[in-house]
Design a protein that fits this description.
Blueprint lengths: L11 E4 L4 H14 L6 H14 L3 E3 L2 E2 L2 E3 L7 E11 L9 E9 L4 H16 L1 H9 L3 H22 L16 H17 L5 H12 L3 H13 L4 E5 L2 E2 L8 H9 L12 E3 L2
Parallel strand pairs: 1-5, 3-6, 4-6, 7-9
Antiparallel strand pairs: 2-3, 5-6, 7-8
Helix pairs in contact: 1-2, 3-5, 6-7
């Protein structure tokens, strides 16, 4: 899958603003300047509202402010490179230098998540991140992202093929465990990236104590098999392995009476 399916070379821009809201505003303004949107005030308000619900600084100097709206018919993204890193209150508490702002309709959630998966893999790779930081010009970044897009596509087409057999039954496990596991996964990612602080290890240990042992055991097993043990349900399909999920099972997931797993790849299923 080519990078151009997500954004073009002119959608990688330099950003001069030094505050979070101003950075978002500058990115939205540039989208309108490039004729990708036609009501920048509305889209800015939607992105800011989404940001107020949950901070999108996901670590490694990277943030992903976004909004879902039916006012656009396709995914619209713009990648900003900040002249000066800013405080974004990110999960790893590090300043943000790169911001990917996206606006997309609900039906395009899978396409958006694919893009985020690709970008997250790039930013979690220390060697590739060094290449990015060494010469963060739009031309160099576009070339690097284009190469990464192809590598990511090839990796998921093989690695994420459906696994045979059915996943473990986690019936009776509270649905609240899923939220706790997602938070635990974020902490583990920080640990994998080299944060060996005692406070982080304590947070991980404390979080584990809140999770049902069956959920935790299954999660830790899946974490060894998959880069991402979680998957979004979109159009009755698993965004991880892209296999169809039976309609009756989707209805069960909607009820959130417990934790649901993909019967093909075994990932934890999330319904937005």
């Amino acid at each position: 899958m080519d990078l151009e399916e997500f954004f073009q070379r002119n959608q990688i821009v330099k950003i001069k603003s030094t505050e979070k809201q101003l950075v978002i505003k500058e990115l939205v303004d540039k989208l309108q300047d490039l004729d990708y949107i036609n009501n920048k005030e509305r889209y800015y308000a939607q992105v800011i509202h989404r940001e107020s619900l949950e901070n999108t600084g996901i670590g490694n100097s990277f943030a992903i402010p976004h909004a879902r709206t039916e006012s656009v018919s396709d995914l619209v993204s713009i990648f900003g490179v900040l002249d000066k890193p800013i405080d974004y209150q990110s999960i790893d508490e590090k300043p943000v230098k790169y911001v990917l702002l996206s606006i997309f309709p609900t039906e395009m959630s899978t396409k958006y998540l694919y893009l985020i998966g690709m970008m997250a893999r790039l930013f979690s790779n220390k060697q590739k991140k060094k290449l990015l930081d060494a010469e963060p010009t739009p031309a160099k970044i576009f070339a690097l992202l284009k190469k990464e897009a192809r590598a990511y596509y090839e990796s998921i087409s093989v690695k994420d093929r459906p696994a045979p057999g059915k996943p473990e039954n986690l019936s009776g496990v509270p649905s609240s465990d899923l939220d706790l596991l997602i938070r635990l996964d974020s902490l583990y990612k920080m640990l994998d990236e080299g944060n060996k602080s005692e406070s982080l290890e304590k947070k991980i240990d404390s979080m584990k104590k809140l999770i049902d042992n069956r959920s935790l055991t299954y999660y830790e097993r899946m974490r060894k098999k998959r880069d991402n043990p979680f998957s979004i349900v979109e159009k009755n399909s698993c965004s991880g392995c892209h296999m169809e999920i039976p309609p009756f099972y989707v209805e069960q997931i909607k009820e959130r009476k417990g934790i649901s797993l993909c019967t093909h790849c075994g990932r934890f299923l999330i319904l937005l």
